[in-house]
Specification:
Layout (H helix, E strand, L loop, with lengths): L3 E6 L3 H15 L3 E2 L7 E6 L4 H13 L5 E5 L1 H4 L1 H7 L4 E3 L7 H9 L5 E2 L16 E5 L1 E2 L10 H5 L3 E2 L2 H10 L4 E5 L14 H8 L7 E4 L4 H15 L7 E3 L7 H7 L5 H14 L4 E8 L6 H14 L3 E6 L16 H23 L2
Parallel strand pairs: 1-2, 1-3, 3-4, 4-5, 5-6, 7-10, 10-11, 12-13, 13-14
Antiparallel strand pairs: 8-9
Helix pairs in contact: 8-9, 9-11, 12-13
């Protein structure tokens, strides 16, 4: 009788793609089952936010399985906590995805495995595609944001070769492809290409499908905005652009080390909206960064009133271990909560107004 596994996934599209790769590899030899019947449970974790980390830890505590592999970003971001809470469970990092069968078998045989070393790991094997296929185009980023712990887990930018991404799309039966990474905007900068060149090649593939491009940081979009807007006009590209600004204050952006200004962000949004009237703009705001003053927050409210993004993702600032921002004096939680409420109410009112126009 074949051994059984179950994979539980927390976090972003990149994590979902990693889980699908692990599921595909394990299914060649083992059987996927429900949580209760699994010989080993793999919990693919996210470590970007403190509340998410707490939710994951609470979930793992409730598991009744004897053998658990804690995978993904959290083992690299907060290994000490996991070692203390779960000394008998195994751990593997994001770069061990392609080694999952070997790690699974070692754990089956009673070994406690901890594999977290950084290495090149290209996740472009063909998975069990459904209607939507999530395709990672790179790992890591070129940023050094003061609040972000994801860099500890995913590392510096490593772009996957365009031809392999294209072959993955050609081989898949999916009708929609989500291109994902920690920052699609800087795709290819390390291998002599860029996102515009990749998308231009993808839309020329001779079959019917749609492409949804993932998050792009404004500083990288600025370098390729002319070509990006043009390729976005292709009928195969879903008219959606996720461009996170994080704050409406240039002072806070500088403290965050975001490497662009509010004016840069507005310029990018304007280019998209001028050229593609039906574009949906998504952006992110972090509320309550330690140095954010009332005036800084007011500037954020003003920016959202001006831009009126169709989608707004609001995150309350939460200190992450090992980051520069964790060393700063934190704002009272009540202030952060109140600012988050005001911003959410503002966006809700803007969406209500837009729905009537």
């Amino acid at each position: 009788m074949r051994s059984k596994f179950n994979i539980v996934t927390f976090g972003c599209a990149a994590n979902q793609a990693d889980s699908e790769v692990m599921r595909t590899l394990l299914s060649r030899k083992y059987e996927e089952s429900n949580l209760e019947e699994a010989d080993i449970v793999i919990v693919n974790t996210c470590g970007v936010k403190g509340p998410t980390e707490n939710k994951i830890v609470d979930f793992i505590r409730r598991l009744k399985n004897e053998k658990v592999i804690i995978a993904g970003c959290l083992p690299k971001i907060n290994k000490p906590r996991l070692e203390k809470e779960f000394p008998n469970y195994s751990m593997m990092g994001p770069d061990q995805v392609l080694d999952v069968v070997n790690i699974f078998e070692r754990v089956l045989n009673g070994e406690r495995v901890v594999e977290l070393s950084a290495k090149y790991c290209e996740r472009l094997i063909l998975t069990r595609s459904k209607n939507i296929d999530i395709i990672p185009i790179s790992q890591g980023c070129l940023g050094a944001c003061t609040y972000c712990a994801t860099k500890f887990a995913r590392g510096t930018l490593r772009s996957y070769p365009p031809e392999k991404i294209i072959n993955r799309i050609k081989s898949s039966n999916a009708s929609t492809f989500y291109l994902t990474s920690q920052d699609n905007g800087c795709y290819g900068f390390d291998i002599g290409t860029n996102l515009v060149e990749l998308l231009s090649k993808i839309v020329k593939i001779d079959k019917k499908f749609k492409i949804r491009n993932g998050m792009m940081n404004p500083n990288h979009v600025l370098k390729i905005v002319d070509g990006l807007v043009e390729v976005y006009k292709d009928e195969k590209i879903i008219k959606f652009a996720h461009i996170p600004v994080q704050s409406g204050s240039n002072i806070v952006l500088k403290h965050m080390r975001r490497l662009y200004t509010v004016e840069d962000f507005k310029q990018v949004v304007k280019r998209f909206r001028d050229e593609i009237p039906n574009i949906r703009i998504s952006t992110d705001i972090i509320v309550g960064y330690p140095t954010e003053t009332e005036e800084d927050f007011k500037q954020t409210l003003d920016l959202i009133r001006e831009i009126k993004p169709e989608v707004l993702n609001i995150s309350k600032f939460y200190s992450r271990p090992g980051t520069e921002a964790s060393k700063l004096k934190q704002l009272p939680s009540q202030i952060i909560k109140e600012r988050s409420r005001k911003l959410a109410e503002l966006h809700a009112s803007l969406k209500h107004i837009l729905s009537k126009t």
